[in-house]
Amino acid sequence: MAHIDYFFSTLSPFAYLAGTRAEEIAARHGATLTYKPMDIIALFGRTGGTPPAERHPSRQDYRLQELARQSTKTGLPLTLQPAHFPTNPAPSSYAIIAAQDTGGGDLGALVHSILRACWAEERDIADDAVVRECLSGAGFDPDLANRGLLSGAETYAANTEEAVERGVFGSPFYVVDSGQKFWGQDRLPDLDAHLAGDL
Question: Could you say which DSSP state residue 161 is in?
Answer without folding.
Answer: H
